[in-house]
Write a structure and sequence with these properties.
Helices cover about 80% and strands about 0% of the residues. Helix 2 packs antiparallel against helix 3 and helix 3 packs antiparallel against helix 4. The chain is globular. The protein is built from nine helices and no strands. It has two domains: about 90 residues, no CATH class; about 110 residues, no CATH class.
Length: about 200
């Protein structure tokens, strides 16, 4: 069994937190404990911000950690959107078309990655990090102010759509599964260098 430095377990524990607290957050939501729910979801988004930074800071990045991080990210956003639909159902109904489009494109990206690699993609692009920051900021702001910002939502949704389209293009460009890809531009430049070589 491989030995890892202590920060490795600490960072992965932070990531794992987002996964294991999902049922607790859902229980808080569906029992009407919205005050506890909003603080819990805010903490989950905060751990998403710091675990990647800490992994790079202590040099304990790993494929397992990257996979956990992606699962934790998706579950956190899913729980937060569930919270939005429970607390602000009118907002969800008014923007249902946009949400359906985003889910549809996400499913296309997921299916393409599964067909090509046999697993989910874990690119963690710069655009994906930007989209995650905007999603988290919009949702936390909504829960704490009680008023969803349409402009903020449209910005977050637009960047999320661009990020998903970029991931579909990355799956097409990269024949083998790869983690921590900065952007499509980096991949194209790398292919150009290899072609000239």
């Amino acid at each position: 069994m491989p030995s890892h430095p202590k920060p490795y377990y600490f960072v992965n524990a932070i990531t794992l937190y987002r996964i294991v607290t999902v049922p607790v957050l859902l229980w808080l939501l569906f029992t009407g404990k919205y005050e506890w729910f909003k603080w819990g979801i805010a903490l989950s988004f905060f751990t998403d911000l710091i675990d990647g930074f800490l992994a790079r800071r202590f040099g304990v990045t790993s494929i397992a950690g990257t996979k956990l991080d992606s699962i934790g990210d998706d579950l956190t956003v899913a729980v937060a959107l569930t919270g939005l639909s429970v607390i602000h159902p009118d907002f969800i109904l008014a923007n249902m078309f946009i949400l359906v489009v985003l889910v549809f494109v996400f499913l296309i990206q997921l299916a393409y990655a599964l067909c090509r690699y046999g697993r989910m993609s874990n690119f963690h692009t710069w655009l994906a990090k930007t989209a995650a920051l905007l999603q988290g900021s919009f949702l936390i702001l909504t829960f704490f102010t009680g008023v969803p910002s349409r402009l903020f939502f449209y910005i977050a949704a637009s960047i999320t759509l661009l990020e998903l389209l970029e991931e579909i293009l990355l799956v097409h460009l990269l024949p083998a599964w790869k983690v921590n890809v900065h952007s499509v531009i980096h991949v194209i430049k790398e292919k150009g260098k290899n072609g000239r070589g």
